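Reviewer comment 2.1 asked that we show a complete input and output for one of the modelled complexes. We chose the FE2/S2 (inorganic) cluster case, as it is the one discussed in the main text.
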Amino acid sequence: MYSEKVMDHFTNPRNMGELPDASGVGTVGNAKCGDIMRIYLDIDDQGVIRDCKFKTFGCGAAVATSSMATELVKGKTIQEAMALTNQAVMEALDGLPPVKVHCSLLAEEAVHAALWDYAQKHGVQIPGLKPPKADIGEDGEDEEG
Ligand code: FES
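Response of the prediction step:
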């Protein structure tokens, strides 16, 4: 039921760990399943994401989506990272079963939460960025992002 790419990123996650001197750290959770994802971003003066790591306490799909999300934002600008949707993460993984779509939403929200933390700490405005939600399950899972 899982694609080969999902299994690959689950069994061999990319960029797992933490960045002690991260420019921004974002943690989001989903109270319904109890899973938690944390993303660390290292952003340089040009607004380019130089490094990205994650820690996920959650299901296999959450591990795979966080791994893929870190791969997709690494080397990108803040604006490019802002444009990363859970849809794009899922496509890059060749899809997820419908009951696992919310896991990819956690990845999108964790990246946004880390960007929010960066913006707060560095006094910058990131157009279109909204404050992170503590629990991404609270508004339902069909929210368009
Ligand atoms: Fe909740 Fe996967 S089951 S993040």
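The CA atoms of residues 3 and 94 lie 6 Å apart. We note this here for comparison with the apo prediction described in Section 3.2.
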